[in-house]
Design goal:
465 residues, EC 5.4.3.8, disordered N terminus, globular, Aspartate Aminotransferase, domain 2, PyrdxlP-dep_Trfase, 14 helices, 36% helix, Aspartate Aminotransferase, domain 1, seven-stranded mixed beta sheet, pyridoxal phosphate, alpha/beta
């Protein structure tokens, strides 16, 4: 089955049932570059434009219903419009009489205390407005604390769409260099060479090679930033994580865990709780906001206090008396710690803390994974599901998948064809993307999903005959 590209002025819907989505996308392209407000929202030949959502379901502008496994890239762990989250938001706005104070408020401390109680590596917390901003701030803190200018990241890991980390996320293999010593490959136009020169790329789940690179560059590296589960579905090996933690402590390199994807999805205390390690800094986002934009970093008191503004220069007030004041690490944002967002986030966490909620969510995820693996096996397709907790991906390949390079053996063409058929059958995730489950997904949803996969496999196999 060939997926066609939209040419200018050409109408070609993904499916006739999605005609209005195609028309609205054509309209959007006239006023929005590429017709989307974020590159990840694009799907060939056009995105599906949504109009409503409830629980585990999405409804598009053509009134088609979908079981949602994208869940805003994993952010909606209780599905769409959970009543408790909705009520917390409305109560906060009604009682406060405003959406935002622009000053400190009690929920900032309440949420910080909650996160500190859950995440082993946290003693203090600062808020941002996205996971991207959280990783960006964590890197600034690391450089200020250590006095070293370079960072290291792993090949295949994504930490947001900004210059320093937009390297070697999904590089061409011919440009990526040796497996044991990857090259920094830019993933966007407009990236200054400075970042290639100051970002060291490491091979994931290969400790001997990682150790060799780190020892050779330790005097210059302020921090390693990493996803403990690459892309949300390729887990770090336990021994790799423990060895990396020991080595970074020995070399004086800070370890930053980007738990934007994994926070609350592997356990209430994220991946660090599962692996039994304490990073120097943690970045959170997604689930933390309960459907609103949010980010946070947390870490040890000795590191985090570098953010304290008291006694530091005031760079935003003209004429301020700054003589004899030191340069503080600057971090600001009008919407940091937004009360409405924190109310939604606290309600989300409280629901997860209810007895058996996380266990039930993980059991549903395992049930779907097991049924899909059995189904694909019956149809003679090499398939495995990879992931932890309530997130996983469908990998059409045999053998172990340990890192970015291993993904080269995956049959992504067949997976993509099946995913497009699933969209037509009412199962939604962006083609080739991971699956995230929510507490709103039901056994009926899972059964319907497995049935749709079987129908999609049959359709694709018939097309290939």
């Amino acid at each position: 089955m060939e997926v066609l590209l939209l040419k200018p002025k050409e109408f070609h819907p993904l499916d006739e049932k999605m005609r209005k989505s195609a028309e609205l996308f054509d309209q959007a392209k006239k006023v929005i570059p590429g017709g989307v407000t974020a590159n990840i929202k694009y799907i060939d030949p056009h995105p599906i434009v949504m109009e409503k959502a409830e629980g585990s379901k999405l409804y598009d502008v053509d009134q088609n219903e979908y079981i949602d496994y994208l869940l805003s890239y994993g952010a909606l762990i209780h599905g769409h419009g959970h009543q408790s989250v909705y009520e917390a938001v409305m109560t906060q706005m009604q009682e406060a009489g405003t959406t935002i104070f622009g000053t400190p408020h009690k929920l900032e401390t309440t949420m910080a205390e909650k996160l500190i109680s859950l995440y082993p590596g946290m003693e203090m917390v600062r808020y941002t407005n996205s996971g991207l901003e959280a990783t960006l701030l964590a890197l600034r803190v690391a450089k200020a604390y250590t006095g070293k200018s370079k960072i290291a990241k792993f090949e295949g890991h994504y930490h947001g769409g900004y210059d320093q980390v937009l390297l070697s996320v999904n590089p061409d293999h011919e440009k990526a260099g040796e497996t044991v010593k990857p090259n920094p490959v830019p993933e966007s136009l407009g990236l200054p060479e400075y970042y290639q020169e100051n970002t060291i790329i490491l091979p994931f789940n290969d400790f001997p090679s990682t150790e060799k690179i780190l020892r050779a560059n330790s005097a210059q590296i302020s921090a390693i930033i990493m996803e403990p589960v690459q892309g949300g579905f390729i887990p770090a090996e336990e021994e790799f994580m423990k060895s990396l933690r020991s080595l970074t402590e020995e070399l004086g390199i800070l370890l930053i865990l980007d738990e934007v994807k994994t926070g609350f999805r592997l356990s209430l205390g994220g991946a660090q709780m599962v692996y039994g390690i304490e990073p120097d800094l943690t970045a959170l986002g997604k689930v933390l906001g309960g459907g609103f934009p949010v980010g946070a970093i947390g870490g040890s008191k000795k590191i985090m206090e570098i953010l304290a503004p008291d006694g530091g220069k005031d760079i935003l007030t003209a004429g301020a008396e700054n003589q004899h004041k030191h340069h503080a690490l600057f971090h600001s944002g009008t919407y940091n710690g937004h009360p409405t967002v924190l109310a939604a986030g606290l309600a989300t966490i409280e629901l997860l803390e209810n007895e058996d909620t996380m266990d039930d969510l993980f059991a549903k995820t395992k049930s779907l994974r097991d049924q899909l693996e059995e189904l694909y096996s019956r149809y003679g397709i090499s398939m495995q599901t990879i992931g932890l907790g309530s997130i996983f991906n469908i990998i059409l390949a045999e053998g172990e998948i340990k890192n970015y390079r291993d993904m080269a053996k995956v049959d992504s063409s067949l997976r993509k064809e099946i995913d497009y058929e699933l969209l037509k059958l009412g199962v939604y995730t962006k083609p080739l993307n991971r699956y995230s489950l929510s507490t709103a997904h039901t056994e009926k949803d899972i059964a319907r999903t497995v049935e749709a996969h079987e129908q999609a496999i049959r359709t694709v196999q018939n097309c290939l005959k």
